[in-house]
Write a structure and sequence with these properties.
The complex is a heterodimer of chains A (89) and B (188).
Chain A lengths: L2 H7 L2 H46 L6 E5 L5 E5 L8 E2 L1
Antiparallel strand pairs in A: 1-2, 2-3
Chain B lengths: L2 H16 L5 H19 L2 H17 L11 H20 L9 H10 L6 H13 L2 H12 L4 H8 L3 H19 L10
The chains are: A alpha+beta (89), B mainly alpha (188).
């Protein structure tokens, strides 16, 4: 192929414009991905926090039974399985 | 290519990392050669222009990753060009085309000391047409692009001994087919 015909395809200005467009696009994509990662982490954080709050608050009402175990002390036992510590009166 | 030229090209690449516009010198130097190299493997001018652009874009994009490995920058450029051509054929699920310009073959023959008649030249062209693609690739890089075996091995991702073997096999067949004495690398 003749150099004249090849020269028609040579265009360094266009190449540089394409290269700069590619760089801009890559920057936008990178920023968007960072944004998605941060958003995903925030969502996970919020979900975990809500789950933990439910775990602490969302218990059924305890039925309180007062029983005398000995004459010197009374132990308030709660017939729930979530509280492991008996409350001493 | 001399050491000084290789170092000079490397200095241009270093400058291009900070300012891509500095790459223009290498673009102007190699565009025609890469265009012809790709054109010989596609035989399609518009496709060649696209693949050529793509090659130089990839080079610009990966300038930071380029490492000097004792080979000229052009070896890396040819490797990327070859990969882009192969990618194109894989995507299109077509067989590779090899278009050897008759004019270039005649130019090479004229450089030889033998005076060949038209009939032998035509036989040679037919012989080249029948050569397997892997041999043609090596012959093209060796005789049309003037690459040494180390560069050919890097460009085609084969061993240096593999590149030599393909070349010598092709030349051996040429010698037998045409009953020629071929001087190659100082030996006949």
């Amino acid at each position: 192929m003749s150099s004249g015909r090849i020269a028609q395809h040579r265009n360094y200005v266009e190449l540089m414009e394409r290269h700069e467009r590619d760089i801009r696009l890559r920057r936008i994509v990178k920023t968007f991905i960072y944004f998605l990662i941060i958003a995903a982490l925030l969502i996970i954080f919020v979900i975990v926090r809500r789950w933990e709050e439910k775990k602490v608050d969302g218990k059924p009402e305890a039925a309180v039974v007062i029983s005398e175990k000995s004459s010197s002390s009374r132990t308030l036992e709660l017939n729930t399985i979530w509280r492991s510590r008996p409350i001493n009166l | 290519m001399s050491e000084a030229e290789i170092q000079y090209e490397y200095s241009i690449l270093e400058r291009s990392r900070k300012d891509p516009k500095a790459f223009g010198e290498l673009y102007e130097k190699y565009f025609d050669r890469i265009f012809n190299y790709v054109y010989r493997q596609t035989d399609d001018e518009d496709l060649t222009a696209d693949l050529c652009s793509q090659t130089f874009l990839i080079v610009l994009k990966n300038l930071d990753r380029y490492e000097f490995r004792g080979l000229p920058f052009s070896a890396w450029l040819y490797k990327i060009a070859g990969n882009e051509v192969n990618k194109h054929y894989r995507k299109e699920k077509k067989s590779k085309v090899f278009s050897i310009e008759e004019l270039r073959v005649r130019e090479l023959i004229e450089q030889a000391s033998e005076s060949w008649d038209e009939e032998i030249i035509q036989r040679l062209l037919n012989y080249l047409r029948d050569l397997p693609t892997d041999m043609l690739e090596v012959l093209e890089l060796r005789f049309f692009e003037d690459k040494d075996f180390k560069e050919i091995a890097f460009i085609l991702d084969i061993s240096e001994s593999g590149a030599k073997m393909r070349t010598y096999r092709a030349l051996d067949r040429l010698r037998k087919n045409f009953n020629l004495k071929i001087k190659y690398d100082g030996k006949e």
